[in-house]
Amino acid sequence: MKFKSHQKLRNHFLVGFVPFKGKFEDTIKPFIQDIQQLECGFLMTIDNEQVWVSGGLGITIADLPQGNDLAASCDNLTDISFDIAKHGRYHHLTNIEFENIQRLPNMLQKHALASSLGFGLIPNPLDQLIRDHHISTPQDIFHCFAGKANRLLIATFRLLTNSGENTFTRTWKFFEVPSCWSRQKNPITHLACYFMSDILRLTMIIPFILYRCLTTNLLKREVLTNMKERMNLQSYRHVINKIIKCWVQFSLTTRMVFSKTLMKVDYETIQKMLELECKMLLEVFPEQFSGLPNLHINRHIVAHAKTYGTALNTSVSVKEMQDIQFEHIIGQGIQNIVNDVALRPLLNSWYIISSLLPKIYDEDDIEKANIITCIPEIMDINVRLKWNKYQRNQENFTIGKHLNGYLSNELANAYTEYYNDRGAMINSKVEFYNNISYVVKEDDCFVDVQLNVGDIVDVFEEGETEESYAIIKGIFTHHERSRKLHAFVIFDWFEKIRENSMLKCPKYRLQALEETQWNRVFSISLIDHNPRVHFVHDCNGDCNNDKHDFTNRYYLKNMYYYLAV
Questions:
Q1: What domain range includes position 442?
Q2: Among 26, 197, 323, 494, which is most exposed with the fewest C-beta within 10 angstroms?
Q3: pLDDT confidence band for 61 (50 / 70 / 90)
Q4: Cβ-based burial of 19 (10 A; exposed 0-12, middle 13-18, buried ≥19)
Q5: Is residue 2 part of a domain?
Q6: What total of structural domains would you count in the chain?
Q7: pTM, whole model, 2 decimals?
Q8: pLDDT digit string (tens) for 285-298?
Q9: What's the domain of life for this entry (predicted)?
Q10: Last residue in a domain, options 304, 339, 357
């Protein structure tokens, strides 16, 4: 099954629920009996021909190793030097140990021996089936990394003073999150309400937030002193750097593990990153991560990724997709509260401010127009939120409702490039909008694309060796010579400068109008996907939480950003 098909809820089938206080082995028993019959094989008539059909259990994915009926033993969990191949609990050895446990005369002795071995009282119920016990039960990276992230967030927040919590909250509240993200609650006060996807998204921006706001006076003095002495650091500032670097390594590793495609060299890279992540977590937060089963899983992720292509191929995102559906329903009710002037002050420090969230459009905002492009695979194009005179004048794109001379020439070039018809532009009258959406047919599926002014997109043009990045400064429609309506975007381009060594993110400069060397007006057919990159302003001393100094044209590409679900 293709990965895109695997992500669709309709391709998942429910075997059953384990009832409250029920046992997994009782619930799964009928399923095991069916699979055992399938393992033996049977005749089936297909198109009037008898066919021998046999099969078996493919893989079972465990949420977490602790407290899970699919778990084996749990010793030497975070010892990087532990030789798994030499000392691992192989199936033929564990069977003997389980037999020894069952021979004991009473439950007290059975529990004592099982506990000393790190076992449960009985074998995994699925051991009755024919399967590879070591590669057929990969751990779910969603639960694994969300669990580690949740623990790391709690450990980090506990370092902060009251002033530190307030400073962190203000920086988080005004942080420029990706436009496709849903509303997030205050992570310090409402972390327990976060879904796994919310926690994973938070890890994509935490390094930037800490880099912007974290100083020594925001950490508890006793904790700061203990960390400095334990890690044998020269100054308190080095403690801050250690915390940020720990988060950077964790976020980079998480993004790499969630990669949709992997090359042979990537497996070696992931292994090194996982080992370094484990080392840094145990160094900076030993009490929180020593002996943690989620950290032990790092030892197995690469092996499972090699077996199944990527770690993402064996991840469980179905439950999270269902949670998101419920979150969307609940969010509609919350939106009504947020729009209530009387109730809004109650949520002042609860949510990221609305100006940083994706807009919710009413049907009245949608401009119904028959817009076309040069590519038939792009269809159902709609524009929303027409700009008024003030918005047009603020960007200096137009004179009245006509494009200025520079952009008129750019639009003529676009007609030449995409339609091979420079004469199609008989006038420069245009209408600007804040949003455009359309559907792109891609192989056997359809992709809903939505672009907003201010989104940053990746563009790969023919003849180029790497992707380029641009921010959408304007979206407009134009009637060409035959009165057909076309849609275009205006770009400002990013130019790569160097890398931020602390955050391990490349640094870019947004080109000014007078220095740009590339075209700025393009047909929307250039963009066949939703924004999938995230840039963060590289703030200086003149930036405030709620207002950036945009004369500073430097940005950082978020190397921790990926699609969590």
A1: 366-533
A2: 26
A3: low
A4: exposed
A5: no
A6: 4
A7: 0.79
A8: 999 888 777 777 78
A9: Eukaryota
A10: 357
